[in-house]
Amino acid sequence: MFPFNEITDFKIDISEEQELFRKAVREFAENELANRVMEIERTNEIPEDLIERAIKLGFTGIGIPQEYGGQGGGSLMSAILNEELSRFSPAFASAITINHLFTIPVLIFGTEEQKRKYIPPIAKGEAFAAHANTEPGAGSDVAGIKTTSRKEGKYYIINGRKYFITGADRAKYFVVSARTSEPPSPKERWKGLTFFIVERDFPGVKVGQKIRVIGLRGEQPNEVILDNVKVPEENVLGKEGEGFKVAVTTYDKGRVGVAAQTVGLAQGAFERAFKYSLERKAFERPIISYEGIAFKIAEMLMEIQAARLLTYWAATLSDKNRQEAVLAASLAKVFATEVAEKVSSMAIKIHGGAGVDQEVGIERYLRDAIITTIYEGTNDIQKITIARQMVKRALGRELGLM
């Protein structure tokens, strides 16, 4: 059982309401999103009518309390949304759910005034938001942020460059990390960081070039440049100097979404491969009749089901605000993303030559899967988190693991 306490820790609670929601998302994905996927791949743009349709269906309000204009639901409901959309387009899923990396920290650390001002427009789809933390020299190492902020009267002046910011091109609001003071010592590098809510139309905010990553076509990241951006003091998110806590709490909560995204991605690749194995014949027999293919199909299904259970379990713990949710989220993120990469590669091999034809649309699953092993904390960083959590539960204290 270690590092968990009892069998009930592994309980997954799924309601009838959540199943009905899953069916509604699946209906949209199969009937409206599926036939636009290759258009998204070719143009590297998500059609606005699809975004508008998702807004009308209430997808942007999932995971946001009703008191702030949302649809309610927690991590599990958000995971279901991510999974079903990602069966066809992880990029579209990212476009709709990236708001969570803004709403999560604002809902947890924001003042009531901040919540009332910024959350309802996002829940209603009237505005989109992004999380601007990563920099050219700092990603997983949150304490390495170089963006600066200095106080001038009732304002903070922010200067820096953020990189790989998903959703930046559509965002009206950003949460931005900056250093408001130097760390007191090399062993306390995380101190002195502060998060701010920054509006896109603040003078000095510029969304820069799109970064042409290998996957997630349609929702590729941008750089965000902050040039003497004047931010009012009421836009400090949480306490000054405690931004590291804001960052890690956000990623602990949001990590389940990446796991769910890759469960959906793997499911989509598996379904395509299984269908092809029934239809494609070699030596006058469907290729699934050969062990080399049949074993791959069976292995894909086994690993996807394990990844789904792990992801739903992590989401359930998160919804219960259990301490174990941090460990579970890292387990789910690592396992599900690596399953997605493996399943996508196997799907390409099952398709043979057709698998590497971009017009067939199988190779894109692998391109998307590789990215998920890197963002929101690389898988190696997640393994460090897992080890730290185990040591903490065993010894009752943390050790310096890096």
Set out the fold topology.
Layout: H1 16-33, H2 37-43, H3 48-56, H4 75-86, H5 90-97, H6 100-109, H7 112-123, E1 129-132, E2 148-152, E3 155-165, E4 173-179, E5 193-199, E6 205-210, E7 222-232, E8 236-237, H8 243-279, E9 281-282, E10 285-286, H9 291-319, H10 325-351, H11 363-372, H12 379-395
Parallel strand pairs: 1-4
Antiparallel strand pairs: 2-3, 3-7, 4-5, 5-8, 6-7, 9-10
At the fold tier of CATH, the topology name of the largest domain is: Butyryl-CoA Dehydrogenase, subunit A, domain 3
Class per helix and strand makeup:
alpha+beta
Overall geometric form = globular
* Major beta sheet summary: 4 strands, mixed
Share in helix? 40-55%
Account of the protein in words:
With 402 residues, the protein is an alpha+beta fold. The chain folds into three domains: 7-108, Butyryl-Coa Dehydrogenase, subunit A, domain 1, CATH 1.10.540; 129-241, Butyryl-CoA Dehydrogenase, subunit A, domain 2; 245-395, Butyryl-CoA Dehydrogenase, subunit A, domain 3. The chain contains twelve helices and ten strands. The strands form three sheets. It has a four-stranded mixed β-sheet with strand order 1-4-5-8. The chain has a four-stranded antiparallel β-sheet with strand order 2-3-7-6, with no helix packed on it. The protein starts with 15 loop residues before the first helix and ends in a 7-residue tail after the last helix. The model has no long low-confidence stretch (mean pLDDT 94).
